[in-house]
């Protein structure tokens, strides 16, 4: 599978089969996060792997009742740690670093025949309580559900190239 095939084929999976993710596949997915690029190669991140059903149910509540969070056999809470570092361009690095790692995990999962969904709709304070994440100095950037999909890929709706690309100047 080419990288572009994976990028085009991946889709957000919101229904999962009741099948565990193998240890091997999980480790491969986490390896994709570990090898991700990061600003200054700081790797200021932590990935909290949640498989316990009761915990996933609590995460689902904190994610505004999105029920597939409890249905997916694995949820990874993706956290930035060095949250004060702002790059010269004015962006916080941790957001971008963790986002890259999350997408690399999503693409790797897709290559393994697994589905994922990125969640940004959650109450961070509630997620922190459920997972005992420190109140200060850590931000939860996103949740990633992982499991065997029971969804079919919908048609991808994307903007046309000429809407998003400019050459040489804006
Ligand atoms: C930063 C971010 C936050 C998202 N939050 C949610 C979410 O809370 N719940 C959800 O069901 N999907 C969420 N999504 C998935 C998007 O809705 C989805 O990626 C988009 O509609 C494109 O569809 P596709 O992933 O199937 O290509 C999120 C995606 C991103 C990148």
Describe the overall structure.
By secondary structure, the protein is α+β, with helices and mostly antiparallel strands. The protein has one domain (3-150): NADH Oxidase (3-Layer(aba) Sandwich), CATH 3.40.109. It is built from 7 helices and 4 strands, in the order H-H-E-H-H-E-H-E-H-E-H. It has helices at residues 3-9, 23-34, 53-62, 68-71, 93-111, 124-131, 161-164; strands spanning 45-50, 74-80, 115-119, 139-147. Strands 1-2-4-3 form a 4-stranded antiparallel β-sheet, with helices on both faces. Helix 2 runs antiparallel to helix 5 (93-111). The chain is globular. The termini are far apart. Residues 11-12, 14, 66, 117-121, 156 line the site of flavin mononucleotide (FMN).
Topology, pairings included?
Elements: H1 3-9, H2 23-34, E1 45-50, H3 53-62, H4 68-71, E2 74-80, H5 93-111, E3 115-119, H6 124-131, E4 139-147, H7 161-164
Antiparallel strand pairs: 1-2, 2-4, 3-4
The protein binds flavin mononucleotide.
């Amino acid at each position: 599978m080419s990288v572009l095939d994976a990028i085009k084929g991946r889709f957000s999976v919101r229904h999962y089969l009741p099948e565990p993710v193998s240890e091997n596949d999980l480790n491969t997915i986490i390896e994709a996060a570990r090898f991700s690029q990061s600003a200054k190669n700081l790797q200021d991140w932590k990935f909290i792997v949640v498989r316990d059903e009761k915990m996933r149910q609590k995460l689902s509540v904190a994610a505004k009742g999105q029920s597939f969070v409890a249905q997916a056999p694995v949820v990874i809470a993706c956290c930035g740690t060095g949250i004060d570092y702002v790059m010269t361009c004015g962006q916080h690095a941790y957001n971008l670093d963790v986002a890259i790692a999350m997408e690399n995990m999503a693409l790797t999962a897709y290559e393994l025949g697994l589905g994922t969904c990125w969640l940004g709709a959650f109450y961070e304070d509630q997620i922190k309580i459920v997972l005992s994440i420190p109140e200060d100095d850590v931000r939860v950037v996103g949740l990633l559900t992982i499991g065997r999909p029971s969804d079919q890929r919908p048609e991808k709706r994307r903007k046309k190239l000429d809407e998003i690309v400019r050459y040489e100047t804006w």
